[in-house]
């Protein structure tokens, strides 16, 4: 098997069809199909399940595709190192991160990176859903919360501090909250249900610990939606401090139980383990972390 076969197979997977792959490779569809069939025969396994509507990778095909991507990246990087200046950073990065993190924090640093490295293209998806980096071809994900997948590399760069807030209107209509034990019905929360899985609130003060499991009247999947609902007096919420800060300063929100602390939530850049990651990805991560620390 040669590198051309691996590259052709990877192109078919990324295009999702023999027709589109043939157009991208400037070859006939029959040639591409025959080459993939020859590759399957050489390997002794079926890589792709073909149907009239779509192509589906077999388990062997998925594993072989990931190996092809790593091999092609290694060869591309090796070629750059011997034929081009190491100052030339180029290529595409597929990046995903939670909506508010991208909009409120990271956007300006991404823009600054693109200005400094004009030969890099970024495809950025802002989403609060769970993502599958390998299946979706994502190079980098900015994860809020603990990283549990041992197949991923994580570079922590920040601790996000949470606080409990409510509007003055809400607090005027409900019983006083002086202790975590006061956070029970008829109080209710605006719950954020996103990639940060926090089933209850764990508050500490000195050596004392209290668990709060407040019922919700509204559950949303973005921090911004929860913030707007809390400002409108719909309940109590646990939100990132930096999101709440301007509303606290302007009196639209009040921090509840400020002498009690909630666990800080780590924020990390996460990417699949590889023998050699593209230089553009290493440079992007370093650039983002350095700029974030200087903010």
UniProtKB/TrEMBL annotation:
<dbReference type="GO" id="GO:0043565">
    <property type="term" value="F:sequence-specific DNA binding"/>
</dbReference>
<dbReference type="Pfam" id="PF03466">
    <property type="entry name" value="LysR_substrate"/>
</dbReference>
<keyword id="KW-0804">Transcription</keyword>
<dbReference type="InterPro" id="IPR005119">
    <property type="entry name" value="LysR_subst-bd"/>
</dbReference>
<dbReference type="InterPro" id="IPR036390">
    <property type="entry name" value="WH_DNA-bd_sf"/>
</dbReference>
<dbReference type="InterPro" id="IPR000847">
    <property type="entry name" value="LysR_HTH_N"/>
</dbReference>
<feature type="domain" description="HTH lysR-type">
    <location>
        <begin position="1"/>
        <end position="58"/>
    </location>
</feature>
<dbReference type="InterPro" id="IPR036388">
    <property type="entry name" value="WH-like_DNA-bd_sf"/>
</dbReference>
<dbReference type="Pfam" id="PF00126">
    <property type="entry name" value="HTH_1"/>
</dbReference>
<dbReference type="InterPro" id="IPR058163">
    <property type="entry name" value="LysR-type_TF_proteobact-type"/>
</dbReference>
<dbReference type="GO" id="GO:0003700">
    <property type="term" value="F:DNA-binding transcription factor activity"/>
</dbReference>
<dbReference type="GO" id="GO:0006351">
    <property type="term" value="P:DNA-templated transcription"/>
</dbReference>
<keyword id="KW-0238">DNA-binding</keyword>
<comment type="similarity">
    <text>Belongs to the LysR transcriptional regulatory family.</text>
</comment>
<keyword id="KW-0805">Transcription regulation</keyword>
<protein>
    <submittedName>
        <fullName>LysR family transcriptional regulator</fullName>
    </submittedName>
</protein>
